[in-house]
């Protein structure tokens, strides 16, 4: 006989709050240890009732820390003596070390000690090498990656031999792009075509001078930044059609970047938030959510506006959400698969058999291509992806210096809105293969939240107007309304 789960009943460290859905049955539950609210199935509640996953990970992490303390406390590596370990959530525990040379204390990743990469404290190394503190930043924004390496100040840009600003021709016939910022020279890569090098220069100029690095340079003049290009699996695979495919998980665009962040190869990663999985890898956190760019989708067309496109027009997108939005308004459209970064997609529009393509307004504006936009699509009719237009500045959880820097660009108001949108996405397991979207409109303390989910080729819409202070509850209200319409067959 199956056990009946009652609302308010506790199982171990889990308390049942409410029924989320009936088929398959799921419950909203709360961890009594940390207070986190999440969703579980009945079998997990009854048979695996030790608590939430975060608490399990925390317990495992503490056991790991104890093992490290037992193994390494008191040992000497170079001039560093291990005093103990920090109780941190980082994937790589940091040892508290005493420098036998200057008697200063440092927090150093244990693997750097045991591998021999670090043999003295930072202050002693800085004094010896006579260099400033170097940091690495990844500026991958919405699939447009920028390769920039810090160069010595004494290294001057060669004479312009290409006819393009910031581009010089090399002896081998190729073209090198450079940009100077705050008296520092940045190398942007080598290209076969001077136009491609010029594009890299224009993108770098936009990113450098729109406030991101400029703010850091002004407020932290002693920091040297290196911008590193990271090619993700999503960047490499431009052929797979991910509609209804499990490989279209958001981590496909982030896992390589996150791994380098965990490994200490970079210190900051700038992602498009709509590409981020709901749960970050352990040891990584969102350090800041800056100001939001325009969240809407846009039409880039060579044959007119959405309503004036010819019958049977070919529209390019690889997003199932965008395809369903288009079909709801223009069932006659032929949706053609389209992948690649912004420049690749725009080029395909010009050279291949497309009448129009759909892109994010934010991506075009951030790359200085807003003039390419034919039409802004109404967010209430064409709800964008949750958190579209928002950047996700990611860092290591135990990196206090970086966390402190990032606090200054954090926009709490945007963070509250994004929390609602991402919660809605989480309810429906939103990804590239999930046909759902939402659009938030703020008026003072009120929010108008428009949410859309496509079921069996038909759109189900919910509109919630309520107090913004209710936070995630807004997302659940919209989700419940959509689920009721699905169950009743009341589909728009």
Fold and architecture overview:
With 492 residues, the protein is α+β, with helices and mostly antiparallel strands. Among the domains are: 10-51, no CATH class; 55-129, no CATH class; 148-227, 2-Layer Sandwich (GCC-box Binding Domain); 297-376, Periplasmic binding protein-like II (D-Maltodextrin-Binding Protein, domain 2), CATH 3.40.190. Helices cover 29% and strands 26% of the residues. The chain has helices at 42-47, 53-72, 110-114, 122-129, 194-209, 212-219, 233-236, 255-263, 320-329, 342-351, 361-366, 400-406, 412-427, 472-488; strands at 10-11, 14-21, 26-31, 37-40, 76-77, 80-85, 94-99, 105-109, 134-138, 149-150, 167-169, 175-181, 184-191, 224-227, 268-272, 284-288, 297-301, 314-316, 334-336, 356-360, 375-376, 391-396, 436-443, 446-455, 458-467. The strands form six sheets. The chain has a five-stranded mixed β-sheet with strand order 14-9-15-22-16, with helices on both faces. A five-stranded mixed β-sheet has the order 19-18-20-17-21. Helix 13 packs parallel to helix 14. The longest helix is centred in the first third of the chain and has 20 residues, at 53-72.
